[in-house]
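Quiz preparation item.
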């Protein structure tokens, strides 16, 4: 969920990162340089550990050592625990073992490098091996992947980085902070009066219309998952990046975007992504979680559950905005 204003203020910085847009807002302009240094260090750390596009990332090394017990770094262990928590929270609708399925669909390089039109047929989809097959001991940080398993931490790693960066910036600077990484947003420290005002849109790369829907955030996190931004064509099919672990295919389109509020960005992202996967079953499932959520159907119809407030409206000349490109994959 990218956050930025049309005219940058001294308390804000925006830059490309992790295949999306990183945005940092602080309540004390003097704290911005230190806050930016913290955020950039966190982004470098998550990229080294969790990128599936870097041949030197820890994730790449782990994925080629199937069947072998490996001791992973503290950062990777935390990222894997976040992914496994998401799987438990969503009943497996968000599953880190979809790596092979994502690659089979053609998403085998950064999205910017992906050909928008691929004539090759889409391979027959296969279900993900399943997160319960992962052998991981968080105490010793020992991990063993069963044969045929390839991890993809894209559904949670960026959200974890947003959570970590927001907490670290607040601790280092003592001021309020809002971190936005594509569809993931985390707040920490004392918020500005009235909260951080976030405008909601389908695509962070496009201007948000004046008077569009907005929400105020004072603490915790928001995450938006969607199927409109990371799409491509292969074998005559339009594909998107959110994979249903049960089928190994992109989730059947029902919701254009889903935005969820939660205490952490990891939880918010897990629930928003799962809602895309669950499709028509998402509403009942969301009500059971009791988390506030806003869902936009393919026809633009908006459904609110869990006490999500009626839409406020964001003015064009001021305020932050948040858009929904989905995850970093």
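Solution:
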């Amino acid at each position: 969920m990218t956050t930025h204003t049309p005219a940058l203020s001294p308390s804000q910085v925006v830059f490309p990162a992790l295949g999306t847009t990183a945005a940092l807002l602080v309540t004390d302009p003097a704290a911005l340089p230190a806050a930016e240094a913290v955020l950039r260090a966190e982004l470098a750390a998550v990229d080294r550990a969790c990128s599936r596009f870097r041949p030197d990332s820890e994730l790449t090394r782990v994925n080629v050592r199937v069947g072998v017990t490996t001791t992973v770094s503290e950062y990777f262990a935390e990222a894997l625990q976040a992914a496994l928590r998401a799987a438990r929270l969503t009943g497996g609708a968000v599953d880190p073992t979809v790596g092979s399925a994502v690659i089979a669909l053609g998403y085998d390089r950064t999205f910017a490098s992906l050909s928008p039109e691929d004539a090759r047929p889409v391979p027959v989809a296969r279900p993900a091996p399943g997160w319960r097959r992962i052998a991981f001991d968080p105490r010793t940080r020992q991990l063993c992947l069963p044969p045929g398993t390839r991890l993809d931490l894209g559904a949670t790693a960026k959200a974890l980085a947003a959570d970590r960066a927001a907490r670290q910036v607040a601790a280092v600077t003592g001021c309020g902070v809002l971190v936005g990484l594509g569809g993931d947003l985390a707040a920490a420290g004392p918020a500005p009066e009235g909260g951080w005002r976030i405008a909601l849109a389908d695509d962070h790369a496009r201007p948000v219309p004046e008077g569009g829907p907005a929400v105020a955030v004072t603490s915790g996190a928001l995450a938006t998952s969607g199927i409109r931004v990371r799409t491509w064509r292969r074998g005559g099919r339009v594909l998107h990046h959110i994979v249903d672990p049960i089928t190994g295919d992109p989730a059947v389109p029902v919701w254009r975007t889903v935005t969820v509020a939660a205490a952490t960005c990891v939880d918010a992202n897990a629930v928003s992504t799962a809602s895309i996967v669950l499709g028509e079953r998402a509403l009942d499932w969301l009500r059971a979680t009791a988390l506030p959520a806003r869902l936009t159907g393919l026809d633009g119809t908006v459904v609110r559950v869990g006490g999500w407030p009626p839409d406020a409206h964001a003015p064009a000349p001021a305020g932050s905005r948040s858009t929904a490109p989905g995850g970093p994959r």
